[in-house]
UniProtKB/TrEMBL annotation, chains A, B, C, D:
Keyword annotations of the record: Hydrolase, One-carbon metabolism, Purine biosynthesis
Pathway annotation from the record: Purine metabolism; IMP biosynthesis via de novo pathway; formate from 10-formyl-5,6,7,8-tetrahydrofolate: step 1/1
PANTHER family per record: FORMYLTETRAHYDROFOLATE DEFORMYLASE (PTHR42706), FORMYLTETRAHYDROFOLATE DEFORMYLASE 2, MITOCHONDRIAL (PTHR42706:SF1)
Name of the protein described by the UniProt record: Formyltetrahydrofolate deformylase
InterPro entries: ACT-like_dom_sf, ACT_dom, Formyl-FH4-Hydrolase_C, Formyl_transf_N, Formyl_transf_N_sf, PurU, PurU_ACT
One MF annotation (Gene Ontology) recorded for this entry: formyltetrahydrofolate deformylase activity
CDD domains named among the record's database cross-references: ACT_F4HF-DF (cd04875), FMT_core_Formyl-FH4-Hydrolase_C (cd08648)
Domain ACT: 21-102
EC number from the UniProt entry: 3.5.1.10
Function description: Catalyzes the hydrolysis of 10-formyltetrahydrofolate (formyl-FH4) to formate and tetrahydrofolate (FH4).
Active site: 244
Catalytic reaction equation(s): (6R)-10-formyltetrahydrofolate + H2O = (6S)-5,6,7,8-tetrahydrofolate + formate + H(+)
Length: 300, 300, 300, 300
């Protein structure tokens, strides 16, 4: 593989130097959009994309994602944040403003199976996954060579149920050092502690190798084979402390038939897993996902 | 089949009595959304859904679809239209305001094959296609019984290339009489004249039984079979005077293999045709489609 | 709708008057195909399609479906059956020989929701579902008109848990009277007793409105909505005495997103249910399905 | 990436040491299957999979693919070939017998875009593509590092219309040297001469970046964008001397919408291209494809 295309990255940053995203969640009421768009217009911003969702126009919840261009964004960014606070307070908003040119720092956790990691590395190399791949952490050595050949730091941190807390202490150290925004579990086969999950709330994406809620837990392909299903699937979701019960981001399926044994299902499943995980990660990086009551709103 | 569910229809109208849709196309510039949303807020309207698309933030085209609730809409509707005109003029807008409770009048043209007509009748009966099915026109008698059993007027208007103009004169008479908003060609096998097409510009939806631009013209399944394709498709599009070249609304495909002869392809294709046409018609009825430079913007 | 196309039916019977199907399941060993094909050749039969599946060449199970043409089939049919018995005994075969021109008698059970029944009636009317639709049985009156308008007998047999046995006694009476080969539960919302299920072993096809094994049991769309899945599905399966645990025949899925409420999911689901059930019924009618250890082998 | 899993390869060869495949095409007549299966049984072979297709039972063409296990296959292979010749002659067969353990030698041609090459390398590395990747030939240097890092010979052979014959002379030299069975054009952007194509008849697989026959020729994504299609596709086919007109092996599609510009379509298309090409190559390697009258019969 060729090394990462620094030129494309600079092009992306340059192209998006004046672009920002505003994500908002608040109780619904008339006038929210009017107030926000007036605010942006008064700050010389031009809205280039907007997605809105209301759970119920009568007393429900309001969600919006806005993308806008604003000349001299870098200089004005903090002032925009300050100026928006009164509006946010008035409407009781959860909100986040992000500059598109600032790439998120991503850490990937992986165990032995490399296919999901490989897909993310590939997308990243071809500039389809816009992030800083800051670090890869594994409880095995298998993928070290592949990761380091791309110039990405690789840490081998052994982990199992007996040394979970020591391992996580080390994980946190590494994540902090790399100022990590997002943790991706690319077929990482260890359980995370509630403390760890809480510290990355809605910022840990897992890929589960079944069509949830079918086959929650271990050995989903074996159980799919036993049941004689005609389709297998994969599910990407944010991690919570209920195993495989976190907010679902994306799912997809593939056909199988009576000739497919467990090993065939695993191969067919790998292709599904890698694309389902990659889509979820890209949507997160593009600030397209809002979480509400254990469900996701994906503005795709 | 049971007769059309009048109760559901009334429920729909009641539920949507204060809901309207605003579709806008204009040159892009900062401040459009701010101006529109301020206008709606000042008229006590609450935006419940919005979709926006800009071809290019720098000097491109701007498209938006807004759905909003406004108390006492019926009484205020005309005033809102009047009040919006200065804004429309200022931004050089093409625009349209529609009241959701006012169903569009739809005429369906069909020849011998009934499957697309049947799908539309079915969707309409089960209240999934919200329209007044005003009339069915055919150059054959085959579907009369089915149509009239549902209480829908059926007109047999013979047509072929020698009597095209007489036939169309009669078509126009019928369409005018039923105040027709949309013409659906549900496998209608006659060519329309440029005058007719012009008088229903972007208001005639056709289903073509191929994955356009593959197999433009006659006998697409025969040609697909000859070519040995592994997938066949269907395309719904607005009719223009270039045969099968109008703006594409929706497409879908199905798999075929070496065992499928032309007759098998036709059967597989029928299922695709009927769903692709139904989706296009529903999107049109819900004011989800904008046309620009022979392409559609579908806010689905 | 036009009445059933008697002409097409006669054409089908005429075209297939010399065609038969042979389904076999036995322990695998070398020489089975040689023996069968030699037998057929010696009876002047020409194999026109064959599908084979072996669970494991070493001591596994062997399954085959053969379609063959044999001149004067009607006259020879019984002799072929007699002559095949020694081979069947030698290889310890479960087997079945069917004449393609003899249509199976089908009974459809339905409750209030008509969409699956409608799909089957439609396919039957357009000669895509080759069967005698012998009778429709319902615990409600809703679909009587639709069924009787096509000349199919309709029986209203009230049923609930208190009168289950009386209802089933009546069901059996009706099924026997129509010499029923296959029972299709087209959204029939009553539980069947073990005795009834046993008497139609692998001859009752149900449609479950979820992607099994997700959402076994009641209210699957409500539970899919609660869980926030991004896809919903439907599953057709043979009925056993374990609720929703019988051999799966076919599954399919459709995409949903955060905007889809339970009612939207139900509508999207209806389209999936009707096609998944229709495919399963057609495969059964064409003797394409073998059952082994609670799984299906579908030679599609 | 880790180096190729030699252990898995040996396991595959050992596991399949007694397995062979027999592909046959001949005029249809009764008794063919009987004759073949009797022959195999008399050679102690056990048929483990069979696929048959007849264009028309009355005077059509007959195609079959058989997979069988035969003890001591290596020792008996040539004798089986010799013994089968009289049968082949009697039925006027085109036929081919292959030993599964003998991997085919594959040459990949690529230009600048690496995604299809990468997919094939990936599948090969993970032992999902059972072949000897003998050599990669390119008219550019871009992919050399990636290829050589896996221990595969890479040849840079400049080519353009002025030096086509010199280039192809060099190509043939390299292909002969590696005893090449199959040439895969993994986005190779040069035209091949009729002589070259003829010398690898039905053994050159190309990936075309459109849903053929839509957008034959150059710049398909640009033309798809211009036309405003809602789906884009890719097609793998055997190369003939009619550009993009060879027998289609596999096709697939992906959805696009009004927001997708040419660059977006290319990215979406890459994912489709790589999977469509990989499937075609795997089917060819598994002897699953027969060609008849510019169409493929794929026994998948």
């Amino acid at each position: 593989m060729t090394s990462y295309n620094e030129e494309k990255l600079q092009h992306y940053k340059e192209k998006n130097k004046n672009r920002a995203r505003l994500l908002i969640h608040c109780p619904d009421q008339p006038g929210i959009i009017s107030r926000i768009s007036e605010f942006l217009f008064s700050h010389d911003a031009n809205i280039v994309a907007s997605h809105q969702y209301s759970t119920d126009p009568e007393g429900g919840e309001f969600f919006i994602r806005l993308e806008f261009d604003c000349p001299e964004l870098e200089a004005k960014f903090e002032q925009i944040e300050v100026d928006f606070q009164p509006i946010a307070a008035e409407f009781n908003m959860d909100w986040k403003l992000t500059a598109v040119r600032e790439l998120k720092n991503v850490a990937i956790f992986v165990s032995k199976q490399p296919h999901c990691l490989l897909e993310l590395l590939w997308e990243w190399q071809s500039s389809d996954l816009m992030a800083n791949l800051a670090v890869v952490i594994s409880n095995h050595e298998d993928t070290r060579e592949m990761v380091e050949s791309l110039g990405i730091p690789f840490y081998h941190v052994p982990s199992n149920k007996d040394i979970r807390h020591e391992a996580e202490a080390r994980h946190k150290e590494i994540l902090d050092e790399h100022d990590t925004d997002l943790v991706v579990l690319a077929r990482y086969m260890q359980i995370l502690t509630p403390e760890f999950v809480e510290s990355y709330r809605n910022r840990i994406i897992n890929i589960h190798h079944s069509f949830l809620p079918a086959f929650v837990g271990a050995r989903p392909y074996e159980r799919a084979y036993e049941r004689g299903v005609k389709m297998i699937g994969a599910t990407s979701h944010y991690v919570t402390n209920d195993l495989d019960e976190g907010p679902i981001i994306e799912q997809d399926i593939g056909r199988v038939d009576h000739r497919d044994h467990v090993e065939d299902m695993k191969k067919i499943g790998q292709t599904i897993e890698r694309s389902v995980l990659a889509r979820a990660v890209k949507w997160h990086l593009a600030d397209r996902i809002l979480v509400h009551q254990n469900k996701t709103i994906v503005f795709s």
